[in-house]
Amino acid sequence: MTRVASIGRSLARGGAGEARRAGPLEAAERRAGFLFALPVILLTGSLLFLPILQTVYYSFTQWDGITATWVGLDNFRRLSSDPVFWRVLANNVLLLAAIPFAILIPLLVAFLLHQHVAGWRFFRSVYFLPTSISWVVIGMVAIRVFARRGILNDLLRMLGIPLTTDLLTTELGAMLAVSLTFIWSVFGTNTIIFITGMATLDRDVYEAARVDGAGPWAVFRYVTIPLLMRFIQFAFVLTVITGFTALFSLIFIMTTGGPGYGTTTLEFFVYQKAFAQGVFGYAAAIGTFLFAIVFLIGLVQRRLLRSQED
Amino acid sequence: MLRRAARAAVFAILFLVAVVMLYPFWFMIQTSFRSKQQFQTGVGYSLDSWAGLFDAIPVVQQLVNSTVVTVAAVLIILAASATGGYAFAKLRFPGRSMVLLAIIAGMMIPLQSVIIPEFVNISQLGLVNQYPGAVLVYAALGTPFATYLMTTYFRGIPTELIEASLIDGASYAQIFRRVMLPLATPALVTVAVLQFIQVWDDLLIGLLFLQTPAVRTITVGLATLQSSRIIDVPVLMAGSLVSALPAVVVYLIFQRYLIAGLTMGMSR
C-alpha cells in the first residue's frame, strides 16, 4: 500500500483540560514521556525533518552534492521558464483525470459487494490482493498487457474488435496505459474503504428508501453516496497523493518517463534531474514544489473534515 | 434483498472483476513455466526460464537481502512507534502536542522531496551499499504513520489501567512492558504487516542505497533485470513471481490486520 499520508486529525489535541498533578509522580511521568518519545524524535528528526529542511534550503542553491552556492530564487525562476517543467506539470494534471474512475468504479463495486451475494468475502480478498504487490511487478505485467503483441490486443481480437493498440509508443497512449494501471492498482484499497464505510451505514436508511419506492440506482445515488462522503473524501485524497508520490516505480518500469516526456510526472522529474543529470539544487526545487502541493492537499482535507465536524 | 435474477447479475459482475484482478497473476505463473520459444508459440511448458532467472541474478542472495533489510526496518519501526505511541497517548510531558503534530505532518512528506539530502547524508556516513543505510531510511519513512496508528490504539486503552499499576508500585517502563505492549499486540501486527509489504515492495530507496548486485533487494534485482534489456518475458515473469510471493503470503495470512490498519487510518 502507499504511505497513507493524509490523515492528520484531531489527534494532536491531547491532554488539554486534564488536571495538573504536582509532585514527584508528575516529574516521573514527564521524564518517562520524554524518554519514550525520544526514539521517534531522533529517527524522524535526523532522517525525515532534517532532510526536508535541507531540500528547501538547497532549492535556493546550485548544488552538486558536495559544494552548494546560494543563488536565491534562480532555480524557481528557471523552473517557471522550463518548458519541460510545464509538460511534467501537465502530466500530473492528466493523471488527475484518472481519479474519478479510481473512485467511481470501486464505489460501484463496493455497492455490489455490499449486497452480500454468494462468495462476496472471497471476491473482497481477491480485489485487495494487488495491494501486496510491488509497483515493479505490476509494471512488468502492465507492459505485457499494453504491448503491441500483448494481452490487450489479444483480448480485442477475441472480442472481434478490429483495432490494434500500441499505447506505449505514443506520449498520450503511454499516459493512458499508466493511468489504467494506476486505476487497477488502487481499485482494491478504495473498494475496501467504501465497503468499510457501507458497513457503518444504518440498515434502516436503506429500508426506508425502499419503502419509499426507490430502486437500486436511486438508493446508490441518493442514499449511499451522500452518506459515504467522508469515506469518498478520504479515498480521494489518498488516491491523489498516491498518484503524485507513489508511482515512481511503476513509471520507472513501464516507460522510464517516456516516450519523450510523455509520462514524466513531478516525482519522476526529481529523480531524473538529481540522479540522471546531477543537478541537485534544481531537483531540490522540484522536490520542494512537490512537497508544497502534497502538503496543501493535506491541509485542505483537514479543513474540509473540520468544517464537517462543526 | 434482491430478486434472484438481480443477484445473479451482481454475482456475474463481481466474478468478472475478480477475473480482471487475478488474470495478471495467472499470466505470470503460466508464462514463467515456458521457455522463450514456448511463450512465442504458446505451446508447451518447461523450467527453462526459472533456470534462466537463477543464472541472471543471485536470486537467493537477493531474497536474503530483502529479508534482512525488511525485518530490520520493521523491527525499528515497531520499537519507535510503540514507545512513541505510548508516550503521546498516555504520558503527559511538555511539548507533547507539538511533537505529535509534527509527526502527523511528517506523514505528508513525499519520499521524492527528501531523497536527495537523504542520499547525500547517507553517502557521507559511508553507508551506501550497506544494509544499515537503507534500513534507517526505510525506518524513518515508515515511522510517522506507524506512530499515528499506535497513538490512536493506545488512546483506546483505559488510563485507569495505568493508574492501578502505578498504585501497585510499577514504574512507567514496567507498565509499558507488562500492561501496554501485550494489549497492543493487534496494532503491532497491523503495523508490522503494513510496513513489511511497504519495504519489501520498494524500489527507489533500494535502487539508490543498495546499488551492487550482492546487496540488492529482490525487488531492485528484478527492476535491473528489466532495464538490462533482457526481453525474455518468461524470465521476467519468473522473477516477478519470486519477488511478489513473500509479500503475497504475508497478505494472505494477515489480510484482516491490513484491512484493520486501513480502517484505523480513517478513524478519527
By helix and strand content of chain B, what is the structural category?
Answer: mainly alpha
The main sheet of chain A comes to:
2 strands, antiparallel
Query: What CATH first level of chain B would be assigned?
Result: Mainly Alpha
Classify the beta-strand content of chain A into a percent band: under 5%
The largest contact between protein chains, plus residue counts on each side, is: A-B, 110 and 110 residues
| Average of pLDDT of chain B | 91
Shape of chain B: globular
Shape of chain A: globular
CATH topology of chain B: MetI-like fold
Give, in order, the helices and strands of chain A. Answer: HEEHHHHHHHHHHHHH
Q: How many domain modules of chain B?
A: 1
SS summary, helix count of chain B: 13
Structural class of chain A: mainly alpha
- Count the DSSP helices of chain A: 14
Q: Determine the CATH topology of the domain at 95-264 in chain A.
A: MetI-like fold
Rg of chain A, Å, rounded: 24 Å
**CATH architecture annotation of the domain at 95-264 in chain A:** Orthogonal Bundle
**What level of helicity do the residues of chain A show?**
55-70%
β-strand amount of chain B: under 5%
Going by CATH, what is the homologous superfamily of chain B?
MetI-like
Radius of gyration of chain B, CA atoms, in whole angstroms: 23 Å
How would you portray this structure in words?
The complex is a heterodimer of chains A (310) and B (268). Chain A is mainly α and 310 residues long. Chain A contains 14 helices and two strands. In chain A, a hairpin with a 4-residue loop joins strand 1 (61-63) and strand 2 (68-70). The radius of gyration of chain A is 24 Å and the shape is globular. Residues 1-21 of chain A have low confidence and may be disordered. Chain B is mainly alpha-helical. Chain B has one domain (33-266): MetI-like (MetI-like fold). Helices cover 79% and strands 0% of the residues of chain B. Chain B is built from 13 helices and no strands. In chain B, helix 1 packs across helix 13. The two termini of chain B are 32 Å apart. Chains A and B meet through helix 1, helix 4, helix 5, helix 6 and helix 8 of A and helix 1, helix 4, helix 5, helix 6 and helix 7 of B.
